[in-house]
Amino acid sequence: MISDRKETGDMTKIKVPYIDQSGRYPTGCESVTAVMLLRYLGCDITVDGFIRNCLRCRAMEQREDGLYGPDPNEFFCGSPYDEDSFGIYAKGLLKALEKAAGKDFQFTDESGTPIQKLLEKYIDQGMPVVFWATLDFQPVPEKRDHWL
Predict the structure, then answer these.
(1) Do 8 and 15 form a contact (C-beta atoms < 8 A)?
(2) 10 Å Cβ neighbour count for 30?
(3) What is the 8-class DSSP label of residue 124?
(4) Residue 142 — left, alpha, or beta (φ > 0 → left; ψ -120 to 50 → alpha)?
(5) What is the CA radius of gyration of the chain?
(6) Quick check: 76 and 87 in contact, CB under 8 A?
(7) Is 71 helix (H, G, I), strand (E, B) or coil?
(8) Among candidates 11, 141, 6, which has minimal Cα distance to 72?
(9) Mean pLDDT value across residues 118-134
């Protein structure tokens, strides 16, 4: 259900359906927030349906010389149901969102955009943003030929 946003002082709040990821989706923050966004937009989808039908997942593989995994720009590395998985980057999540919503909505990768600009461009206009960051906002490690 889409609700009107409420302005309080210099804060803008928009009501987005909340889904608790704890328990069932220990590494599924990307999938859970994507479904929250889709539900806000009026799409009838579950987190399990999103993972099963829209999110491209590939398992990690332990080899003698280290841990190998798929490109996180293309695939969820592991499974959102497993606590030892790694996740997916914005480009891969964008593809899953587009698959879930079809041609009804347009999604934009705003990676690297300052938070203030996201607030002004989207939140202040009543549009939700799927936002996540690394722990303590540390830079994402450069792509390697394998995982360590």
Answers:
(1) no
(2) 24
(3) G
(4) beta
(5) 16
(6) yes
(7) coil
(8) 141
(9) 83
| Token pair listed for 83 | 């606590």
63 by DSSP, 3-state: which? strand
| Tokens linked to 127 | 């549009």
Over 50: is that where the pLDDT of 2 sits? no
What's the rounded Cα separation, in Å, for the pair 140 and 24? Answer: 26
DSSP structure class, residue 75: S
pLDDT in tens, 24-68: 999 999 999 999 999 999 999 999 999 999 999 999 988 898 888
Question: What's CA 89's distance to the chain center, in Å?
Answer: 8
Residue 112: left if φ>0, alpha if ψ -120 to 50, beta else—which one?
left
Would you state the structure tokens that stand for residue 111, as one six-digit string? Answer: 């990676």
